[in-house]
Specification:
The chain has about 120 residues and is mainly alpha-helical. It has one domain. The chain is about 70% helix and about 5% strand. A two-stranded parallel ribbon has the order 1-2. Helix 1 packs antiparallel against helix 2 and helix 3 runs antiparallel to helix 4.
Length: about 120
């Protein structure tokens, strides 16, 4: 069941950018998790603005491709603390696992076909 519209997904995308930008300060993340959060904020904002849906500005990426990017990013975020060696930092590990799971769930609930022309 796809209960998240493309427009609402866009709002969630912008909220995700803000969360990634604030996390290093609010959670006192160490260097690698903090730099990764800032990088992910930039990438997430770029993908959102470049996507062809109501909240995209440049409309260079099909919204379905936007969905596939998030289908990859979600599981990678769950694994990244273990891959980059900060799994022993509970706050950073839990933040990335939670963000990955949220992105996975949002992706499963989003209607990526809605904006197709």
């Amino acid at each position: 069941m796809k209960i998240i519209s493309a427009r609402n997904h866009g709002y969630l995308d912008f909220l995700t950018v803000v969360i990634f930008l604030l996390a290093p300060t609010l959670l006192d993340l160490s260097q690698i998790p903090a730099m990764l959060a800032y990088g992910l904020a930039a990438v997430h904002l770029t993908v959102t603005l470049a996507s062809d849906f109501s909240l995209g500005i440049f409309k260079m990426l099909a919204f379905t491709l936007h969905g596939w990017i998030e289908r990859i990013v979600g599981p990678v975020l769950v694994a990244i603390p273990f891959i980059l060696g900060f799994a022993d930092e509970a706050v950073a590990r839990n933040f990335y696992i939670a963000m990955g799971l949220i992105i996975i769930v949002a992706g499963l609930l989003t209607n990526y076909q809605e904006e197709n022309r």
